[in-house]
UniProtKB/TrEMBL annotation:
SUPFAM superfamilies: Nucleotide cyclase. This is GGDEF domain-containing protein. It comes from the Bacteria. Residues 166-297 form the GGDEF domain. Pfam families: GGDEF. GO terms for cellular component: plasma membrane. GO terms for molecular function: diguanylate cyclase activity. GO terms for biological process: cell adhesion involved in single-species biofilm formation; negative regulation of bacterial-type flagellum-dependent cell motility. The lineage of its organism: Bacteria, Thermotogati, Deinococcota, Deinococci, Thermales.
Amino acid sequence: LFAAYTGVVGNLGFLLSWEQARARAEERARRWTRFLEALAHLSPSVTQTLSPEGVLLGALGAAQHLLPQAVGLEVRGRRGLVGERTPHSLTIPLNGDAAYLYLRTPPEEPVPQGFLSLLGERIKQVLKQVEWGTLALTDPLTGLLNRRALETELPKLLALARRYGAPVSVVMLDIDRFKRVNDTYGHPVGDEVLRLLGRILQASVRREDLAVRYGGEEFLLLLYGANREAAKEVVERIRYRFRTQRVEPIPYPLTLSAGIAGGEVPEGEAQVEDWILKADYALLRAKETGRDRVTLA
């Protein structure tokens, strides 16, 4: 009887062990499925960004399905880091770029075979899509957004502003007497003036702002979280930097004029378009009253 009891207990133990192993295998399969689905959905259209950070955030989220202790992801060649660096990392194969998945703690089990290769291949594919999209949505001369990008990015800015009740100011800027620069010193010098202002604008705006080459020597800024007075302070700093830098062989200081409108929480795209028109009229007044100044609508 004791032997029979021992056999039954042994069989029960085997069945329990088998059931636990089956449950673990099913859970691993579910995690793999979620990981693969997240990778498949990773794309610039989903991340809604022109920068690689959104791609890396999506890739980190996908990796967490298989490695919940993942807390950071970095592609050093692109200066892209999301999450945090830790002493525990796994190297992601990425065509020569140094890429790492950072973990809160070392993995308790062996890393699933093929996991890092799949992750690296998908990151590489989507980053390439971001590069293509950036080329299509940026002005090749200044590196700023173009009009097409404005149509893409404006709804995101408006959604952010409405969500947090933040004002948005619209600024129209125009380089003073730019035609004289082209006529006197040639278009290559004029192009360098445009590049200079593009660099200044990129350095002067924040991540949430939009800086757009609107056409010719005219530029558009949409400043998130800024009322009109705050926007005026930003523009005055831009004007100062532009005036104090030189483009050879131009002997005189470069100046610009600007018009500002908005400064409230936008109700929608139609209102922002109205603010753009008002900022343009304010810019025209700045030109008519002597240039090298900022006018509020």
